[in-house]
Amino acid sequence: APAGDTQTVSGELRTADGVSILISININDPAEIDALDPATAGVGLMRSEFSVTSLADAANEERQLAIYRRVLEQAGEKPVIIRMLDIGGDKPLAGLEDLPALDPGLRGIRLLLARPEIARVQARALLRAAVYGKLSVMLPMVTFPEEVDRMRELFRDEAERLGRRALPHRMPPIGMMVEVPAAALMLDTFGSVAFFSFGTNDLTQYLAASARDAIDADAGNAAPAVLRLIAQAVKLAAGKPVSICGDMAGDPHYLPGLLAAGLRHFSVAPARRPAIRSAIIGLNADGTKAAGE
Ligand code: PEP
Ligand code: MG
Questions:
Q1: How far apart are CA 176 and CA 198, in angstroms?
Q2: CB of 86 closer than 6 A to ligand 1?
Q3: Of the residues 28, 177, 178, 207, which should be mutated to test ligand 1's pocket, given the most ligand atoms within 8 Å of the CB?
């Protein structure tokens, strides 16, 4: 891009003082991949629970493969992070309501490890889809490193099985959501994780003891605590790729605090991009306003 151009075709932007910032998009419905224009870095979060909504879907490897493949092919050279099913909590899966109803803590990766037959099908679909683009896999609601280790083991098992069946596949990098406060505080213990992405929706909920549907009211008050936790966790990430995909990332109001916390990669709903882009151009990388703004 010519000097002075604030936006390149790669989805890279610069702050007023010249620090490079990436903006990716979050997608729910896979059709939203159409919003991936050249000015976007990639898909920072695809919530797979919007594509897999019943136990029948969860058991259907070919259907999942077709969905993930289409998204990856459409994204071309751009990286796509698909998050494994985050079911339980506020996101039910038709046919699997009982377990999380009995134990509200049983969601995300815990539920996947408790029902490994669901995780195995999704792992196979993702391993096979990885051949068609730049796929990374993200694990939801991780609390402990052992959970990541167990899921990686499951991926290795399934890769071996696919190999025995001579089905094309590739092992994707495996990263995790940072949305449980216990994980954020201990981020330096997640040595085998390829990348981190902050989920401020759940991080706020669990940090501030607020109901998820009350977050709009509580998020403002909890923001200083959430921002401090994120700043500490970014330091603990020790140079591994770090991004943020929670709703805070799409609200320009929080941008100074998130920049000051060290974040340089923001994944936001497609509709939030214009506001975030123009806000970044007017800020320095430490979150202060650019001179003349
Ligand atoms: C989050 O918790 O911030 C997040 C991005 O995940 P979800 O909104 O799907 O829970
Ligand atoms: Mg979440």
A1: 9
A2: yes
A3: 177
**DSSP E strands: which ranges in the chain?**
12-14, 20-27, 43-47, 79-83, 134-139, 174-178, 196-198, 242-244, 265-268
ipTM over 0.95: yes
Taking the centre of ligand 2 as the mean of its atom positions, its distance from the CA of residue 18, in whole angstroms, is: 31
- Packing angle of the helix pair 215-236, 200-208 (nearest 10 deg): 100
**Is the CB of residue 169 below 6 angstroms from any atom belonging to ligand 1?**
no
Q: How far is the CA of 247 from the centre of ligand 2 (A)?
A: 10
Q: In this model, does residue 270 exceed pLDDT 90? A: yes
What rounded mean pLDDT belongs to the chain? 92
Looking up tokens 């797979």, which residue turns up? 48
CB of 202 closer than 6 angstroms to any ligand 1 atom: yes
Token code pair at residue 53 = 């909504």
Q: Answer whether 245 contacts ligand 1 (Cβ < 6 A).
A: yes
The 10s digit of each residue's pLDDT in 181-218 is 999 999 999 999 999 999 999 999 999 988 776 656 66
The token duo for 50 is 């919007």
Interval 91-132: pLDDT, tens: 888 888 877 677 878 899 999 999 999 999 999 999 999 999
